[in-house]
Design goal:
9 helices, 38% helix, globular
Amino acid sequence: MKEKQLHSKNKHKNGYDFELLRNKYPKLEKFLVEKFGKTTIDFSNPKAVKEFNKALLFVYYGIKDWNFPDENLCPPIPGRVDYIHHLADLIGDQTKVKVLDIGTGASCVYPLLGVAEYGWDFVATDIELDSLDYAQDIIDDNNLDAKIALRQQFKEEHILEGILEEDDRFTVTMCNPPFYKSAVEARGANRRKTRNLGNSAVRNFAGNNNELWYVGGEKAFLHTYLYESSKHSKVSKWFTSLVSNKDNVKSLEASAKKLQVTEFKVIPMHQGNKVTRIVCWRF
């Protein structure tokens, strides 16, 4: 599998070395299959996908333990580390970098990758206490307590309000927002994807409510985030977010002008057939 359009610093930009993964992470062996004369995994099998991402974290990023329930989202490592590399380009050469990760989830994936690739420090937030518990276990198991701190957001309508402390100063804030407007919409999309990939694929699109949906969907989430960032403009040099729906970028930019954002930029991200973007703003 070759991802030609990943960031130039992405370790997976030239595809996957399954022989290396098999040798260094033997648990992957039972999930390997031969397809068109090449070794790969069945990407419609959720257990194979999770073990594959564990292998990538172990072999390339030194993450020994990465355990969380199957009902939580299993993030694809190549795409997640791309966000990290683009942020590194955005902030340039800085010796002391502190990142706020909004909605880190049970996998704690962005902090793990940011520490592994650049040695950044992280504060990571989430609304689900269970997710934070699993994230803390991962942090503890990998001896990363000095690099990653967790905070709980108690009010689901807020993004930044309620989790910031008086002396907080971040280099950059990052977020991968929920896409759907409701649990019903999320389940419908799950069923469509399941039909497209086969019934066994359902777990690939698992996720807790807070991971998949927010009242008003991605657009509402982004506008709340933008508005709250304007009230705490000195907290972070840059505010950023992944944006799945390109139509949301224009409305966000229009609102940013009204809120006196001094710089607004969009970084395109191409991962195979999927196109997304990072929206960045500062005051």
